[in-house]
Structures are given as C-alpha cells and as structure tokens.
Task: structure prediction
Amino acid sequence: MELTYNKAHEKLSKLVDLIEDDAIQLDTLAEKVKQAKVLIDFCEAKLRTIDDEVKSALLDKKPSVKKKK
Amino acid sequence: MAKKYRLSELVSEIDETIQNRFAGETFWITAEITDVKPQDPSRNYRFIKFIEKSGTTTLASIDAVFWAKSLNQIEKFEKTTKTTLRNGLELTCKVVVSFNNRYGLKLEIIEIDCTYALGQVEIERQQTIEKLLKENPKTIRRVDEQFITFNKTLELPIVIQRIALITAPNSDGQRDFNQELKGNKHKYIFNVSEFLTQIQGDSSSKLIVQKLKLIEEDKESYDIVVIARGGGSQSDLQPFDDYELSKYVAAFPIPVFTGIGHDRNTSIVDLMARQHKTPTKVATSIVDHNFNFESDIIDFKERFFDAAESMIDDAKESLLQFKRTVKAYSPATILNKGYAIITSNDRIIINPKDIKPNTEIKTILKNELIHSTVTKKTKNGINL
Result:
C-alpha cells in the first residue's frame, strides 16, 4: 500500500513506543532501524521534493535538459 | 394670447423661484440611492439618484450630485463602512437644493452621515448572519459567540501541500501569498493551483462561488482552499458578507483558509472558515502546520535512535559484565589469588570427607603441582 504522511507518522510513533518500552528484541533491532529510516526518509523527502507526477510532467516539457552534458 | 417665454427666460424664473425658497438652506434626508455608476476618473463629480419607494411604486425620485469638493465624502464613506457606494444603499445625507440652467434641478450632497450608514451596514450584516444560522442549521451553528461550521470542523490533513488558491490576477494577495509560501525557510515544496477571479465589487461573490464549484469537482486533488485578497482598510468587504458565498463556504468539503486583508471588520465568510488576517499570514500558518508535523518526525527520529543506541550500549555493557563474571570464576583467576585445587585419582575433591589419611593427593597451585600423601585430618578452625 502507498505510504502517506499519516501512515508514516503512525508507524513511527508505534516504533518509538515499542523501543522505549523495551519491546523490541536485539535480534530484530536492525530490521526495525531500517523500517524507521525508510519512514523518516519518506517524510523528509516528500516535504521538500516535488511529487513524482509533477516532476515527470516538468521533465516531459524539457526532455533534453537532463541528457545534455 | 398669453405671453410667450423663451426657454431661458422660463428656466431663469424657475431658478429664481428655487433660489428664493431654498438658497442657503441645508436639509438632512435619508433615502435609498440608485443609478450609481463607477467613478469616471476623468471627471471630478459624480451623479447618483435618490428614490423613495412604497412596495414597487416609486413615490419620489430626484437626481443628486457630488461635486468636486464633496467627492471626499464618498471616500470617507467607503473607508468607514467598508462598503462601496452601490444601488440599494440607504444613505443619510446633508443636501442643498440647487438649480442650474443647463443641468436642471439636483440635490447637491454636502456630507454623508457615516454613523448612520455604518449602522445600516451592520444591520444588514446581522440579518445575513441570522439568516445563515436559521436556514443552515446542519452546517452553521453559533456557540458562545463562536461560529462552528461544517467546514471549520473538517480535519486538516497532517501535511498541507496541494493548495487551491482563489485570488485576483496580478494582485497583492496573490503575490504576498505565493512569496511567503514559496520562500519558506524550511524549503517545503507546495503545489499551488490558482483559480483567478475578480475578488472586489458587486458580482465577485458569485464569481468566487463559481471557482469553489470548479474546485469541488476535483476535490480529491486539494488539501485546502485559500481565499486571498491583499488589502488595506479601503477595501470593500461587501462580497465577503454575501449570503450565498458564506453559505457555500460553510458547507464546503475542503477546509477553507481566508486571508482577506482589512483592518477592522471580520467578514461573514471569515467567520465561516479558518480566518487569518492576511494572505501572508495564511501562508505562514500553512508552513507552521507542516513544521509541526516535521517536528514530530524529528522527535520520533531522535527518540528512536537514542533508544536503539542505548539498547546496543546496554547489550554491550551486559556482555562485558558477563565476561567479568566468567573471568572471576575461572580456575586461573582463583589460582592466581593463592587458592589451590586438590585432586585425588584425577577428580577434584569438593567434599573433604572423600579423603582418608594415607590417600595420595595432588595440590594444584599456580604453575606447580604438589604431590603428597595425607597424614592427618582435623577441623580447619576457620570460621567462614
């Protein structure tokens, strides 16, 4: 399912609760860290990057810009 | 045959008669105005008409004029009442009756009583509010002088990025809003779709409703709607006190933010929506809203990684502890401290009862092994 701000917020909040309540086992920590990082990166990127749709629309207008070097 | 008059003679006589009766006298009248046209910038006067009606019948009607010296009365009126001079208004004015041989009979307006006009505007406004409350009980309620509308109770998305902006083309409102939003210090990205329309003057409330309808057709595409008008106290609030527009905003399915610049009154549309004083402040509040979200994320990030780090530190610490314990109990440690291990027949003796006199034993000390035969056994006398 597509990630949204709401879901990312909710999932992160749960992960924080789990880890602060010592409910995460050491052997699953690496996996949880990875999950948290994906969620954080998603939020940070989406706040500051133009949506893919918009981006591709912009690129369509200027198709040659990226290829030239 | 009666005397024939030349037109100018007759008109002069009328003029004289009027002069005799009315010269130098001023009158206060209260009447509805009509035939109001926009000010022609090339002229330094403005014509209107006063009428008095009873139902649909006109009982009286007379032309009136603001000459150059009283044009400032219109400015003062519009500034004080936040209303443009328009047909249907009831004005209280100080007038003199004047006759001009070329232009005929007119009331010259010397002064407008703004207090009265302000009262009228306020009465109209209150009537509109009462009508909104009475006819839209599902979408508009008043609780402790606060208005609770369907629109205001809509939950805001946790992050606002897709904005439908209703504003006038090339206006201060459009510029201020976009500048503040796009230049935000957090470098957040926004996608603003502009719905440009006239936002001042008589028909603009209808035009704004039309834009809202367009937005509603594509409502999944927008997080919020912003109505922005730059301002100044001179501006006319009239379109934003309109019944239909207010009603539409109150029931609108996407949260509406208003930034309608004016320094005194709050328009009715403002009461129906999330009001901010200016377009710039709307933009600031959107950026702040998103920053609240990001602050949460940053807080989560710090707490999560702090917890993960301390989890690893704890694990390291307990491993270290474990190592220490193991080391403390290892035979090498014990022997180093001067303790000995005694064996007999290659078995460690734990219970001294297993050893009888004449048994051969080995005493293991640090680096050396001592072979001996037991000669005697007694209590050790150590009180442990």
Q: What stands out?
A: Chain B has three domains: 7-118, 136-291, 333-373. Chain B has a mean pLDDT of 91. The first helix of chain B runs from residue 7 to 22.
